[in-house]
Write a structure and sequence with these properties.
Blueprint lengths: L3 H14 L5 E6 L10 H8 L4 E7 L2 E6 L4 E5 L4 E7 L8 E7 L3 E7 L5 E5 L2 H8 L10 H9 L5 H6 L9 H11 L12 H20 L28 E5 L2 E5 L14
Antiparallel strand pairs: 1-6, 2-3, 3-4, 4-8, 5-7, 6-7, 9-10
Helix pairs in contact: 1-7, 4-7, 6-7
This protein binds a DNA duplex through helix 6.
DNA sequence: AGTACCACCTGACGGC
DNA sequence: TGCCGTCAGGTGGTAC
């Protein structure tokens, strides 16, 4: 479940469980997930050091160790982290384990192996090299509007494009569009400044609340609570629709998110 | 530049 | 029960 709010929660999870802990060992269970980087290299970079900081940019999570290098993690569609006592059973689908002081461990788990774990020397350099845009939680209104005005095409496409804006995926893009009253098939060219500013505000609101609620127990009138075709829209009672767009399923309310409504929305 | 489609992976679920 | 198609919150490459 890894979009920005989920990764932010994982960052806080690392901070509350693993910060300050000494790395006693590293076990690589799956070389595909480390993209071929050997267990030996992970050990060389991490063993004997402590986890001293955690950072996030978009959907990427970074754990900084003493001495300066960083463990970078991307969670794909099914990745997560699990902190546990080494006396307990290891979590399922564990791909990499950091054995930490206090007889504890932090596992990177992933069912589908679509994410990866690697080592980087510098967070900013990594983000720049990847061409990742500004973090959705950090970006300011003017920059947001500017970026969107310089693009054409589907609004949803821009929301999900990590080079434009880092952090939103399929679920949260749908949620932001739903709360903005904008059809997922709407084009940026159709939107005015007012619409883009509303989109920005709703995006911030959705992300803030999602992080605050710790990903679960979302407000009942959110799309995310009943995001399936044929479900009932909690705002107007219409049926939620599903359409393929940008290669992904978009869920939306055809009535709350009428096509081409533009700035008529509050 | 923007879009569609495929590939990479595994698991859950519904229909037959 | 087993098999098959479809779908699932990720990115990256290709072809138009």
């Amino acid at each position: 479940m890894p979009e920005l709010p989920d990764v932010e929660v994982l960052k806080r999870y690392i901070k509350s469980t693993s910060l300050g802990r000494f790395i006693e060992g590293v076990e690589v269970r799956d070389l595909r997930v480390t993209r071929g980087v050997s267990a030996r290299r992970f050990r060389y970079a991490l063993r004997g050091r402590s986890i001293v900081k955690a950072d996030r940019h978009g959907k990427y999570l970074f754990a900084g160790v003493s001495g300066g290098s960083w463990l970078v993690m991307h969670f794909g569609m099914s990745g997560s982290l699990s902190f546990y006592s080494r006396g307990e059973e290891e979590p399922g689908y564990t791909r990499l384990v950091l054995k930490l002081s206090g007889f504890s461990a932090l596992a990177y788990t992933s069912v589908r192996r679509l994410g990866f774990v690697s080592l980087v020397a510098d967070v900013k350099m990594f983000i720049d090299a990847k061409g990742i845009g500004p973090d959705a939680l950090v970006i300011d209104k003017d920059t947001f509007v500017e970026l969107f005005r310089s693009r054409k095409g589907f609004v949803k496409s821009a929301l999900m494009d990590q080079r434009v804006l880092a952090g939103l995926g399929n679920i949260y893009s749908d949620e932001v569009l739903f709360q903005s009253g904008i059809h997922p098939g709407a084009r940026i060219e159709e939107l005015g400044r007012i619409d883009l500013e509303r989109l920005f505000r709703k995006m911030k609101h959705v992300l803030d609340v999602a992080i605050d609620r710790r990903v679960k127990r979302f407000p009942g009138n959110w799309l995310i609570q009943n995001r399936s075709a044929g479900a009932t829209c909690k705002r107007c009672g219409s049926k939620i629709a599903r359409e393929k767009l940008v290669g992904r399923s978009s869920y939306f309310c055809p009535r709350c998110q009428e096509k081409g409504l533009g700035s008529l929305r509050p």
